[in-house]
Specification:
The structure is a single chain. By secondary structure, the protein is of the alpha+beta class. The chain has a single domain, classed as Aminopeptidase (3-Layer(aba) Sandwich). Helix content is 33%, strand content 32%. Helix 5 links the parallel strand 5 and strand 6.
């Protein structure tokens, strides 16, 4: 079965042809794995952007608790999380949901997080996860998707732009690690 056939039949686990990558909806049992991917991906992606002591002090435990709660309480599919696996090993995740910004009206959606283990970067998982999120929201009528990225995250911005996303002019300061880190919003139209 091809990926498009899987999507057409509503199959949640779509094997990405040619790269041995499976994308599936995450369950509460995946919370620890997702938290570990988050911490490792965050540390690698934001080295040089955030202070080293902040990155070293990140902990899996609190993220696991928050993710488990979120996954257990998403009975109406309002904030789905996807997990990327290669050879049965989880290597990345994406989470999404309704937009948090007042100037992005429904039926838009927001990608809240996209992290891949550093050793799996440039292997197609980020692209497949972002596609899964976009496809999910498009099927539910969303015509616009947004996400926030650190302004100084050149590699992340290049990735999103290669995927067809563009800065939409919105900017905000994220207060993290005692710093104000500028973020810019990217937008994708269906």
């Amino acid at each position: 079965m091809t990926t498009s056939e899987s999507k057409a039949q509503g199959r949640p686990d779509a094997e990405r042809p040619g790269i041995g990558l499976a994308i599936r909806r995450a369950s509460p049992a995946d919370a620890r794995t997702i938290a570990e991917i988050n911490v490792l991906g965050f540390r690698a992606a934001y080295r040089g952007i955030l202070p080293d002591d902040f990155l070293a002090g990140m902990s899996v435990g609190p993220r696991e608790v928050a993710l488990r709660s979120r996954l257990e309480n998403d009975e109406r599919d309002r904030a789905p999380v996807w997990l990327a696996e290669r050879g049965g090993r989880p290597i990345g995740y994406a989470s999404s949901g309704p937009p948090r910004d007042d100037d992005v009206p429904l039926p838009a959606a927001e990608v809240y997080a996209l992290y891949v283990l550093p050793e799996a970067w440039r292997g197609g998982a980020g692209r497949a996860l972002l596609d899964a999120a976009a496809d999910y929201w498009r099927e539910r009528g969303s015509t616009t998707l947004v996400l926030w990225v650190f302004e100084s995250n050149a590699s992340g911005r290049a990735f999103y732009e290669a995927m067809g996303w563009h800065p939409d002019g919105a900017r905000q300061m994220l207060h993290l690690a005692g710093l104000g880190i500028p973020e810019i919003r990217y937008r994708l139209r269906a």
